[in-house]
Specification:
The complex is a heterotrimer of chains A (488), B (474) and C (99). By secondary structure, chain A is α+β, with helices and mostly antiparallel strands. Chain A is built from 15 helices and 13 strands. An eight-stranded mixed beta sheet of chain A has the order 6-8-7-12-13-11-9-10, with helices on both faces. By secondary structure, chain B is α+β, with helices and mostly antiparallel strands. The chains are: A alpha+beta (488), B alpha+beta (474), C mainly alpha (99).
Chain lengths: 488, 474, 99
């Protein structure tokens, strides 16, 4: 397995002058262009990027990628939507500004499912984003370009956002680490909203340590985001010691029990077996892992609760996209016609469908049955989790039903089959604002698969430490998809 | 007409005074250059988030307390979703689930009778941008976008346009007295929606409610209500009451009539839901107690005090409480010891006349109560006549000089004997200066004059002083 | 049938969005799936007694913003992404009728 340098290793090389920041940046730009021809991971590649001064700071001089739904001053920020195809903001997201203080170098804006809605990487206005391990497969979404570029080794990290599993699922499909911290640890100011009560900022990296370093630099209370909180006493990177003896984890029986899937594909069987196998590594380190049963009915509602809440909030959040102040003006006689043309032309089919659903759900006569009930079930699920977190340090679960699906079959439609629960359970992490991290835990059909650990709010350091311990027992840390190799 | 009972409810929107807007830190002022008071949220640039202004929370709580409302444990907001070009976010942040105050009441006077008006709720929200219309285009100025608004909703408990206007007038004053708003209708700071229905005198059930949106002056509120009562009554008289529809109408200023906008079936569904970006804010009791201390003495209480304790007529009292500035001026006068009736006469007579003539407010009025007292005191002592007082009042205003300057003219010390005594004392205290003067430092003469003026507080007749000094020193 | 093509077109129109026939059809089927699961929710015992979760973090406290003014965005920045403006203002076709 080919591996590639971590942030710490790159920093050491920069300090020792084995390489300069400029050289790193040039190399990164070259790889970005190459990857673009293969995976279509970028909306913008910043060819003018220059190296920065190297200081004691681990991140100084290091190149990185930014998901295109982060507002970046003076840099095209489209959210991968035609509604903002030419939008150049005059301000940067707080998370980006926080990182800038560490002298990192942005290399590009990564393509994504339009405004983060979708999990396939097939709804970007710049076209499908492909998986660097196998370009007939999807990268997963919505942080598709960020996941693909980090997995291909363009740079050690990229920013992502996660409303349902948009960091953690593409991370699994691309064989890398995806981490979304507790809600509000990173300010959302400047992140184009999808569903405000579920949206999280986070990052994609190739190791847990790198994720800790990056989020340490992104986080912090922000006067512009009232939901952000003071985390200055949390030092993620420093708290990684790999000592997990006595920790307790659980998994949800109803979701991972193979018996629940009588028609299971070979991939699914292998994926679940691999999951149980991975648990052994943690047990060897002194972690207790227990199977917990949760009411099947509650589990079965997760996906619909997510759809209700996210569609409803999205409808409202994206009402500012009318083409009046920014975005291309629509044609039309009156103002309404003009706004309608902008929106009809600008949004992908997927988004339009979600808006209509969201709007129906919020209607006065329907709100109680759909939206408010969904908010109630959200609380039931979150309360259940919080109760379990009193006993356990975290929930450990397989990500998805196996490796990335083929891109051809993907429609990103709302469908339901008996694997939906396995496909969608990461949304629990968004319901509760819980810290949640995916790390790679093997290969199926030569494609990476991932495992996820989710813990209680504010307990990020503990969650990362368990992931760190597990990662150390497996050979997938810092792995890189071999897509750019033959051209080098 | 006349045989039906009208039932009226009001929604009063009032722009709040603050430094910055309610959910952004842009300046709260829209009478500047277009688009000169803008933070990114005010134009809904992607990724922006609302932050609540604590002063707006405080003022909304103050109003809820004044209106004797129940106040919720937590303050939070809702989104009201609709598309309109003056609403950049595509939703207005307002309060639907938990208004800052509910179930309140306030007593007003209508034609000398007291009336309790029931308050359904009062809530904090944001204003929209303003549109300027031209022949084929409209221009959007976002300065007003995000300006804090308080919306006060009464129960349908008013019976006439007179009561409605009395309530609005009274509330306008309360807003001013509480320093919550300038409440200037001319600046468009108050806008009203009016609900009107009619019913038989003895009926138990309310009639069909018609809403008239966006009425911008109190006079128009009265016209709109009267027109609606007439329109509905005529239909009822004609046996066509079923044609009165639950609908939204607008007021047409030119014709003084109301015009249908939309019926109940076309009512906009605003899809209210809780704003997730503003967490619930706990309203601490200790804070409420502090805010309570800022509740001003309301105009009605002041009026009763003026009548019952200070001996003013109802007529004068009514004029004085009309503006908080008047009442404050009057009370300051009384506090300084000016006879209440004298102060009231000055205020309701020459002062208000002068302000109206010059287009000024009391804030710019030169004769502050302390200066006025300089005049009234002398009148009271009998040292000047009321005619002289009037002259001094006018001169002082004209020349922007304290009244005492004109008084001192009248009462200069010209008594030589008195002045000589003062001068002797001064010379005795300054022997070294005398020597210096006599040794040739002649400009010290002016020093001695100055000492005398100081001793007599400027009242000494300078010519006589010079004469005496000349005699003594040379 | 609760969900109809007309209902969906009407919803879309209110969102200022036009739909193709195919999109309309797809929404119909998606609606039905969501509706089925919502049926599950209504069957959860005592669901009405659960307080709806409107915010992500419970027991969250924050300090409201002090009433201080920050400098206005420059007019250049305000209009940089706007396709139609006149002077300092954003221009749209004449707006008629109220909200």
């Amino acid at each position: 397995m080919k591996t590639i340098k971590t942030i710490e290793e790159l920093h050491q090389m920069l300090i020792n002058k084995e390489i300069t920041s400029d050289e790193l940046v040039k190399d990164s730009l070259k790889k970005a262009h190459l990857l673009q021809t293969k995976c279509n991971a970028f909306v913008t590649i910043l060819d003018d990027a220059k190296g920065k001064e190297v200081t004691e700071d681990l991140l100084s001089g290091i190149p990185y990628g930014i998901k295109d739904n982060y507002s970046t001053k003076g840099i095209l920020s489209t959210g991968s939507s035609n509604t903002l195809k030419d939008y150049v903001p005059f301000f940067s997201a707080t998370a980006v500004l926080n990182l800038e203080k560490h002298h990192v170098v942005p290399i590009g804006k990564t393509a994504m499912d339009e405004f983060g809605m979708g999990g396939s990487g097939t709804t970007a206005h710049t076209g499908n984003i492909l998986n660097p391990w196998d370009t007939t497969r999807m990268a997963g979404g919505s942080s598709s370009g960020s996941a693909a570029s980090v997995a291909a080794g363009v740079y050690p990290f990229a920013l992502g956002s996660d409303t349902g599993d948009s960091i953690r699922k593409p991370a699994a499909f691309c064989g890398i680490v995806g981490y979304k911290p507790t809600y509000g640890m990173i300010s959302r100011y400047g992140l184009f909203p999808f569903a405000s009560s579920l949206d999280h900022c986070g990052c994609l990296t190739r190791s847990v340590k790198d994720a800790a370093i990056v989020v340490d630099a992104m986080k912090g209370i922000d006067k512009n985001d009232l939901t952000s909180w003071d985390s200055q006493d949390i030092h993620l990177f420093e708290s990684l010691d790999g000592n997990v003896k006595g920790k307790k984890l659980f998994y949800i029986k109803e979701i991972v029990n193979l018996e629940n899937y009588p028609d299971a594909s070979l991939e699914l069987k292998e994926h679940l077996n691999n999951f149980y196998h991975t648990l052994d590594y943690l047990k060897e380190e002194g972690v207790t892992i227990e199977e917990v049963s949760i009411e099947q009915n509650l589990i079965n509602t997760i996906f619909s609760v997510y759809e209700c809440l996210s569609c409803a909030e999205a409808t409202s959040n994206m009402s500012n996209l009318t083409g009046i102040i920014f975005g291309p003006r629509g044609e039309g006689k009156g103002v309404n016609e003009m706004m309608k043309e902008h929106r009809t032309k600008g949004f992908s089919s997927l988004i339009k469908r979600r808006f209509v659903i969201g709007s129906y759900i919020l209607q006065k006569e329907n709100q109680e049955r759909y939206f408010v009930n969904a908010q109630r079930v959200r609380r039931l699920i979150v309360d259940k989790m919080k109760e379990l977190f009193k006993t356990y340090d975290g929930l450990i679960m397989p990500v998805s039903t196996g490796p990335a699906p083929y891109i051809d079959g993907s429609k990103d439609e709302i469908t339901k089959d008996n694997t939906t629960n396995l496909e969608e359970h990461l949304q629990i992490g968004n319901f509760g604002g819980f810290p949640s991290i995916t790390i790679p835990n093997g290969f199926i059909n030569n494609l990476p698969v991932g495992i996820n650990i989710t813990g209680n709010c504010y307990d990020d350091a503990n969650v990362l430490n368990i992931a760190y311990a597990l990662e150390s027992k497996m050979p997938y840390k810092n792995q890189v998809a071999p897509i750019l190799k033959e051209d080098e | 007409m006349g045989k039906y009972k009208a039932v009226i409810g009001l929604e009063m929107h009032c722009e709040m005074q603050s430094n910055s807007k309610v959910f952004s830190s842009a300046r709260n002022s829209y009478n500047d250059n277009p688009n000169a008071n803008i933070r990114p949220l005010d134009m809904a640039f992607p990724g922006t988030l609302p932050t609540v202004n604590i002063e707006c929370i405080r003022k909304s709580l103050l109003m809820a307390l004044i209106l004797n409302c129940q106040i919720p444990k937590y303050m939070y907001f809702d989104r009201k979703n609709y598309y309109y070009p003056d609403l950049p976010k595509g939703y207005q942040i307002t309060q639907m689930h938990e208004p800052v105050g509910v179930n309140g009441h306030i007593t007003i006077d209508v034609d000398g009778q007291s009336k309790e008006v029931l308050i359904h709720d009062i809530h904090l929200e944001e204003d929209s941008a303003s549109l300027d219309h031209y022949s084929t285009i409209s221009l959007i100025d976002y300065n007003r976008s995000g300006v804090p608004l308080l919306e006060l909703v009464t129960e349908p408990c008013l019976a006439s346009s007179k009561e409605a206007v009395a309530f609005l007038e009274y509330m306008r004053r309360v807003y001013q007295y509480a320093n919550v708003s300038e409440a200037d209708t001319k600046k468009g700071q108050i806008r009203c929606d009016v609900n009107v229905s009619i019913m038989d005198e003895d009926a138990k059930e309310l009639g069909t409610k018609v809403e008239i949106k966006n009425v911008n002056s109190f006079a128009n509120v009265a016209t709109a209500i009267e027109y609606e009562i007439k329109r509905q009554s005529e239909l009822k008289d004609a046996g066509r009451y079923d044609e009165v529809e639950q609908e939204t109408r607008r007021f047409d200023e030119e014709t003084g009539t109301t015009i249908r906008m939309r019926g109940k079936v076309d009512a906009i569904d605003y899809k209210y839901y809780v704003e997730p970006n503003i967490p619930k804010f706990k309203i601490e009791n200790s804070w409420l107690e502090e805010i309570k201390k800022d509740i001003p003495i309301l105009p009605r209480e002041r009026k009763l005090n003026y009548q019952n304790n200070l001996g003013l007529s109802e007529y004068d009292a009514n004029i004085i409480i009309k503006e908080k500035d008047y009442a404050d001026y009057f009370e300051e006068c009384v506090q300084l010891g000016i006879d209440p009736k004298v102060a009231a006469n000055y205020l309701t007579g020459p002062i208000i006349a002068y302000l109206n003539k010059e287009g000024l407010t009391l804030k710019d009025f030169y004769l502050i109560p302390a200066y006025l007292k300089e005049i009234t005191e002398e009148v009271a002592k009998g040292t000047i006549s009321s005619k002289q007082a009037k002259d001094i009042f006018n001169k002082s205003l004209e020349e922007k000089l304290e009244p005492k300057n004109y008084l001192s003219d009248n009462k200069q010390i010209s008594d030589e004997k008195e002045l000589e005594e003062i001068i002797n004392q001064i010379l005795e205290n300054n022997p070294s200066q005398i020597t210096e003067y006599q040794n040739g430092k002649t400009n010290l003469f002016q020093y001695f004059v100055g000492q005398v003026m100081k001793e007599t507080k400027g009242k000494a007749n300078p010519n006589i002083v010079r004469d005496i000094l000349n005699k003594k020193l040379n | 049938m609760k969900f109809t093509e007309e209902l969906i077109d009407d919803l879309a129109a209110k969102l200022l969005i036009g739909l193709t026939k195919e999109e309309n059809k797809l929404i119909l089927s998606e609606f039905n799936i969501i509706d089925e699961t919502m049926e599950l929710i209504t069957k959860i015992p005592n669901i009405k007694e659960v307080e709806p979760m409107t915010h992500t973090l419970d027991d969250f406290s924050y300090t409201p913003r002090e009433d201080e003014i920050e400098e206005s965005i420059s007019i250049e920045d305000i209009l940089a992404n706007c396709d139609a403006y006149e002077g300092r203002e954003v221009k749209v076709p004449k707006v008629v009728g109220g909200e």
